[in-house]
Structure formats: structure tokens, C-alpha cells
Amino acid sequence: xxxxxxxxxxxxxxxxxxxxxxxxxxxxxxxxxxxxxxxxxxxxxxxxxxxxxxxxxxxxxxxxxxxxxxxxxxxxxxxxxxxxxxxxxxxxxxxxxxxxxxxxxxxxxxxxx
Length: 113
Ligand SMILES: [Zn+2]
Fold this sequence. Notes:
32% strand, alpha+beta, 113 residues, hypothetical protein PF0899 fold, binds zinc ion, three-stranded mixed sheet
């Protein structure tokens, strides 16, 4: 389950921020997960609950915002939502398209004490 290793690196970022900014507890983590990032939000929730024990984020609420995939066609320039890689362009049939959104996972915000 690679969500667990993603969670470990995310927690390192949070712990670093806690050190730099001097907060002791995170009460809420808002996470953006691209629909095409290959991350399962439910597995991420599970990893969060297990991974945050004994950390600054123990007991924090996890908010997951899923962002839709979006592609731009290199041939005709059409931009459209996509759900899978290599989906052909709806206008001209070109594939693969350039994926321009929905591939990333990032921390949007932290609520802290
Ligand atoms: Zn096209």
C-alpha cells in the first residue's frame, strides 16, 4: 500500500513545519488528491489514522479534496476533463493528451494550535 509511504513523507513535512513555526498540535489537515494521482482516498484515510499516532497530527481531522483530471490536446488544443490516461481527444482523436491537472497530491492547509 503506497499510501502509507506517501503519508510518511507528508508527516515529515508537517513535523518540519511544526518545528519551524512552533506549533504543537495539528487539528485539521486538508489534502488535495488528484483523481489521476493514483492515490486511493480511503486508503489515505486509513494511513492517516495509523500514521499520525504519536505525532503532532494525532487525532487531527483529515479533509480530502479530490481534484478532477484535466487534459490538453497537443494537436488541436482542446482542454477537457479526463478520467484515465491515454484517453483520446474528444474533438480530434489524438492520444495521448497532455495531462495538465489532477496528477498531484499536496497539503492544502493545516489548522494548528
Ligand atoms: Zn484534439
